[in-house]
Amino acid sequence: QVQPVESGGGLVQAGGSLRLSCAATGGTFIGLTMGWFRQAPGKEREFVGIISWTGASTEYADSVKGRFTISRDNAKNTVTLQMNSLKPEDTAVYYCTGDATSPWGSAALTNAGAYRYWGQGTQVTVSS
At residue 100, does pLDDT exceed 90? Predict the structure, then answer.
């Protein structure tokens, strides 16, 4: 069973950038829709964005559209979340997830319950 492992979180000032990486252990991301979710203290886990298994298509939450970019390298079995123009409200634990149980284009893909594999999360803190 594939296990995503995130890295790259940290503390950054508002307006700054961070790059999160997700690597596969115990398996491969090839053929899987991969995504990123985040969870702030006291809040539910929320959708950030997803990327199709070929990397040709992406979808983002309105709150991050234009600032965040998801990419993948299937040869290296990695998925990346580039976060620019960070805001204090982006502060959260960020989770890499994969193997959606719904097809591309389904509204269900914005729900955490639609994914089988989850990483342990990495903390992103944006100071004002």
Answer: no
